[in-house]
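Most newcomers find our protein records easier to grasp once they have seen one. There is nothing in a record beyond a sequence line and a structure line. Getting from the letters to the tokens is the skill we practise here. An example says more than a description, so a record of this kind follows:
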Amino acid sequence: GMRSLAPAWPVLLVGLLLPPAASETSYEKGSEVVLYANKVGPFANPNEVYNYYKLPYCAPQELEYRREDLGALMKGDRATKTLYQIRFLEDVTARTLCKATLSRDDTARFKAAILDDYYFELMLDELPIWGYVGELEAKSINFARAVDNSTRYFLFTHLDFSIAYNGKAVIEVNVTADPLQRLDLSTKDSHQVDFSYSVRWIKSDVPYAERMGRYAQYSFLPQSFEIHWLSIINSFVLVLLLTGFLAIILMRVLKNDVSRYMQQADLEEEEEEETGWKLVHGDVFRLPPALPGFCAFVGTGAQLFSLIIFLLLLAVMNLFYPGNRGAMYTAAIVLYALTAGTAGFVSAHLYCRLVGPEGRWALTLVLSATLFPVPLLLMFVFLNTVAIGYGSQAALPFGTILVILVIWTLVTLPLTVIGGILGRNAAKGRDFDPPCRTNKIAREVPPAVWYRQGPCQVFMAGFLPFSAIYIELHYVFASVWGHKLYTLYGILLIAFLMLVIVTAFITVALTYFQLAIEDHRWWWRSFFSGGATGLFVYTYCFFYYFGRSGMFGFLQTSFFFGYMLIASYAAFIMLGTIGFASSLVFVRRIYRAIKCD
């Protein structure tokens, strides 16, 4: 009941909003099994999806849409009833769907679709089926996407469905286009065409509960599982060596430093100059510029971190199995709304600890509620406009946008404010209490060689964590921006934890090197060093787009670079927070170890 909701509320609330695990539909012999059409689009552009009937297939008089939930709508699915009559356990040898006349315009549309390698997605009893609209036969392929007269366009006109059943349930469905029944569109402008189909029912022993298993093993391409594990173990060893190496060096160097400083204090030799990080003890806890913004970034980072941890835990618990269409989108939206309290609490708490409860904590709160959502909203508005312009199903319907805005105003904003007030109250009577007093006047920062300055350090800080997740990133991209299914969430969780550990270690090391050359401006620098991986991820996008994918066209390109920009920005904020948090712990520890005047 409701009483037991308290501890696991985020997971349970997501559970309430996700569609239930598909309940088995049982059919009697001869009862209708409805075939829905989801979408068509170029195979290389997973976001460029259109309504199935945008192509001049035989359409019903009135298009009948099925109600979809939030996640499926965000994936671009709009299930529309088709004319195919499929009855449970009734085989069809060959039945005409319809006789159609393709006008000049219709022919041109089919030719364009075949040239761009269009595929379609149908749904039968919640099982997706894919096939190609047609095929090209070219004597020579021109790379300029130009087409000479020798190219022939074949439209598939006959679909052959083979459906496996167990008892009264549908278990598996495949569709193949009959290669003998295809229409050559290159001969003339308009055509008479017969669309037809056949249905075969095959008995299967697979239980209903396991029918989604085959989607996990392959989607258009088989997955190379061993390579995947090898790459992770490879990264893991790299990470262990790196962190161990850094830890040993830092511990030894610090031990030497501390004992040297202690001896100096014991001998009280006034004439010996202090060197290194002890010199800046009067400046190291000087508050950074733009403090409200800094605290807001850290709060947002804490929220995004908790969001990703929750998402990965839900994924490992197998909530996003392949049949649960768009469940991850729904979960992400709901969890983002629910974790908003984290952002408010962390940013207000940090600010009030550093400045006291009287400062500009309300500004911090406003910033922490807008730093991530506002860029996301602007990007969404732009991309949705592009999708509407293309007439694509990737554009969210107005109702869905309203639902998301309502969630934001009724859940996210109030939670941020409540979190902020709690954070401020928790900070009362607990000031920052730094180990060393801050001097009135800031020390001058001595000039440093170029490779110890900000940009170079930030570059080094981003490179190592990126190399730890580089291979995993390829698989994630291939599933988000392609048709591969990603099911190895356990590996993803390991990769994420490695990323966090490496980011923390490298940032701590770089903060130490920075203080050692008497540069005390470590607050923002540690944040940028931690977040630098986000910049590398965005750079990787260019490599992926031009080197690894076949995406083309303005819609897909803007979707890819637009949403990846937001994702990289999120990674930047989250990893920046991890970098700063680990540096803060480290800096407090080393200055507590020496006697400050």
Remarks:
- The first helix runs from residue 9 to 17.
- Residues 1-7 have pLDDT under 50 and may be disordered.
- The CA atoms of residues 379 and 562 lie 7 Å apart.
- The chain is about 50% helix and 15% strand.
